[in-house]
Amino acid sequence: KNEVEQSPQNLTAQEGEFITINCSYSVGISALHWLQQHPGGGIVSLFMLSSGKKKHGRLIATINIQEKHSSLHITASHPRDSAVYICAAPGGTQGGSEKLVFGKGMKLTVNP
Amino acid sequence: NAGVTQTPKFRILKIGQSMTLQCTQDMNHNYMYWYRQDPGMGLKLIYYSVGAGITDKGEVPNGYNVSRSTTEDFPLRLELAAPSQTSVYFCASRKTGPLLNEQFFGPGTRLTVL
User: Fold this and answer.
1) Which residues in chain B have their CB less than 8 angstroms from residue A31's CB?
2) CA-CA distance, B60 to B73, in Å (whole number)?
3) Which residues make Cβ contacts (< 8 Å) with residue A92, sequence separation at least 6?
4) Which of A47, B41, B61, B95 qualifies as a cystine partner to B57, CB 3.0-4.6 A?
5) What pLDDT score does A95 carry?
6) B38 touches chain A (CB under 8 A)
């Protein structure tokens, strides 16, 4: 079974700071998901990636398949980025299972 | 499109009571999922379905049942509620294809069992 670990678990930043959220997993995978959970509880998908880098606005996600590691970067952070950021990977022994395994999430607070 | 909708938003049950959490999606997605989220823990898969009439267990299926009679609906049934089932429940769906497809989540149902 894939184990997904996120670090740090909590982060407080000042508006404008560059933020990095890390995710590591134990089994080789076909895809990794980054999700955002708003303070009200709603969950939205941010990225899915299997290699390299993806960018959407101020968010950048990277993945290193060999090192089994992914990072989510937020440039010029803003208070509206305050949320829990969750990474998830396929849970099968060969990384291709339909069942996603989720990290515990990282709670980000951006102060004005 | 309404996306994924869940009802109710909140519910308090007594131990031993039963209830059904409703989930509906209007995106014609074949894949649907039920997750639970406990405080400080990651989402855990309860059951999933790859199409009408087909369901399978996830990581934590005990105490729950599901059915999938239509593409749109994927209800989750709790037969004998226990305090350990106090959690926030999320339904999600995605279109057919590799796992590299976005999952769309419902707003969640907060369930308390006393």
Assistant:
1) 98-100
2) 21
3) A2, A27, A98, A99
4) B61
5) 44
6) no
Find where tokens 């560059």 sit: A18
CA–CA separation, B72 and B76 (whole Å): 13
Residue B42 contacts A where some CB pair is shorter than 8 Å: yes
Which chain B residue's Cα is nearest to A101? B44
pLDDT in tens, A76-109: 999 999 999 999 998 765 544 678 899 999 999 9
Chain B residues 55-114 with a CB less than 8 Å from chain A: 56, 58-59, 88, 90, 92, 98-105, 107-108, 110
User: How far, in Å, CA of B74 to CA of B96, rounded?
Assistant: 16
Rounded distance between C-alpha atoms, residue B27 and residue B46, angstroms: 22
pLDDT in tens, B38-91: 988 889 999 999 999 999 999 899 999 999 999 999 999 999 999 999 999 999
Q: What tokens does A57 get?
A: 């606005």
Place of tokens 């989540």: B105
Residues 6+ apart with CB under 8 A from B39: none
